[in-house]
Write the structure tokens for this entry.
Amino acid sequence: MRALHRGAAALATTAALLTGIAVAAEVRAAPAPVAPAERTPAAARKDSENFGASCRTLVQGSVVTAHCQNPFPRTDRVRLHVECARWWDVDTDSAPVAVAPADYAQVTGRCWKEVRSAWITHEPAPQGS
């Protein structure tokens, strides 16, 4: 009779523990409250939407070439960043290249050995240039 009582007590304790763990996991998994979105003026949104050259990168061995074309009415300054695979190989960042509206630019970079990654960054050119 005592063995049955101990078994039932162990089963009840295990059930309570599992229920507590499940509730704790559910509380931890609950999403955080979302902050209200900031409202930006329509003119600011329109400027940010009409900016940025479309670029594609091509890696051939240790040479990276970026081809950028700007379809927007604002000049975009693009930079090519190349991260090399070997620890002793120097990563490179190109000088900013201005891509005028409806213009095309090609930027190259290289590593001594393999290329780990390459990406393009954009920044608007100062007004009046």
Q: What stands out?
A: The two ends are 92 Å apart (CA to CA). The mean pLDDT is 78. Residues 2-29 form the longest helix (28 residues). DSSP finds two helices and seven strands in the chain.
